[in-house]
Amino acid sequence: MENLPKLIDCKISLNNNIGLLSFNRDDVRNALTGTEIVNDIVKTVHWINKNHQVAVLVITGEGAAFSSGGNIKDMAERSGDFAGDVQTLEKKYREGIQQMPLAINKLEVPVIAAINGPAIGAGFDLANMCDIRLASTKAKFGETFVNLGLIPGDGGAWFMQRIIGYQKAAELTFSGRVINANEAKEIGIVLDTVEPQDLMVKAMNLASDIANKPTASLRLTKRLMKMAQRTELADFLDICAVFQGMCHNNPEHLDAVNDLMAKLAK
Description:
It is a single chain. 47% of the residues lie in helices and 15% in strands. The chain has 266 residues and is of the alpha/beta class. The protein has two domains: 10-211, 2-enoyl-CoA Hydratase, Chain A, domain 1, CATH 3.90.226.10; 215-265. The strands form two sheets. It has a six-stranded mixed beta sheet, with helices on both faces. A three-stranded mixed beta sheet has the order 5-7-8. Strand 2 (18-23), helix 1 (37-50) and strand 3 (56-61) form a beta-alpha-beta unit. It is globular, with a radius of gyration of 19 Å.
């Protein structure tokens, strides 16, 4: 296992094959612009994909918010990530925040978002890039770009409709309204809601259940889940056959079969 990646605005730890990435900029409500959080996320994904001992990643926010998305002050001042003409801003988006969805979409392990507070704009989109979302009862969600005369420039319109369907995603995106954790659960944005003090316990317990599975097959299964979204069935089945051949020849498969047989024999 290589050393943990050196991050600037996030904290990372690794215990029992579970990575925990915490956004550490509560001073700006963990904004994704004007901070190094996006770069830290990209670094973390690259590190995990190269280190096959990592089985699952949990992401959360330090402080009151999960992430407020774009820095409103910078927008008002047309500074930082929001300064420049059309060509300049297009380049900043492609080389900046858009690296986040591209990276997370290629993450080879399951990723759980433990949403401790408001997830607004790009912060909401970041949560939707994850495989599973658990929310504190204090969490709020808003695809609020249209309220500011903007569009979801980080890919949010691609992710949310794949989770809850086009019509509901369209309503949230076109209205820009903010919803609470209970509604988010009702419409399928989050898997479950818990009291704030129970959020990380719930997230880490789920992460532990996943991390206890055979690691190689877990990573291949994650890759298949992503491929299924963009591959024709016949081609997908061909890939499944190859991946299954890899699994049958991995020692962890025989170990798992022998463990099950031993349990059944008792």
